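tool_call predict_complex ligand=cytidine-5'-monophosphate
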Amino acid sequence: MVITLDGQAGSGKSTAARKLAARLDVPYLDTGAMYRAVGYQMLQEAVSLDDTAGILEVARDLDMQLDCGPTHTRVSVFGRDVSEAIRSLDVSRAAAAVARVQPVRDLLVCKQREIGAGLGAFVSEGRDQGSVVFPDADVKFVVTADAGKRAQRRLDDLHAEGEEATFDEVLTHVIERDANDARQWEPLLEPGAAIVVDTSDMTLAEVVDTLESYVRERVVDPVGA
Ligand code: C5P
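tool_result ok
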C-alpha cells in the first residue's frame, strides 16, 4: 500500500504524515529530507545557491542513506547522521535551490522509487509524490491551509524557538514559497486526482483522524495491501 501526502509548506502535512504512518504502523518517507541532505552537502562544499552545475555534481556524488520507520525518517550523508542538522534555516534555503534543479529532481525521484520498492507499504510526503513519483499510489492526499493560518503557525514555531519575526514578514515568505512550490502539487487539485484536506480550521488530531479514516475506507488491510 502506498499513501502520498503532498501540499503546501506549513499546512501541517509533515507531522500529519508521520502520525498517520505511526497509526498504520508503516514506514514514513520524508522526501523533503532528501532535498535538504543535498542542500546540507552543498553548504559543506561551499557551492553557491545559483551554481546549478555545482548542485548537480554534489547530488550525483552524494552518498545518502535513509532509514524510514513508522515514526521517523533519519538521513545520513557519507555515514554521518544529519537528521537534525538539515533542519536549519540555511539548509532550508539551500534545499529550495536544490529543488529548482530539474536533473537533481530526476535523480531524487529515482531514489525515492527505489526506496519505495524496498519498503512495500509506506506513507510518502513531499510536493510531487502523488503526481510524479508514485502516480499509482493507493491513496493520494493534498493538504492545504489558508496562507494567513500557515503564516501564524510558522510565526508561533519561530517564537517558540526564540527567533524574532513579524506576521507580515512570515506571510510574505509563505506567499513566495507557495509561488515556487505550487506547480508541483497543483496537478493533484484536478477533480478525482487526490483527496484535498483543508486543515485551516482543524487541529492536528482532527487532521490525522480524517486521513486515517479515508485510508481505512479505501484500503481494507493497509499494511498487507
Ligand atoms: O518539506 P521540506 O521543507 O523539508 O522540503 C525541503 C525543500 O525541498 C523545499 O524547498 C521543498 O519545496 C522541496 N521539496 C520538493 N519536492 C519534494 C519534497 C521537498 O521540491 N518531494
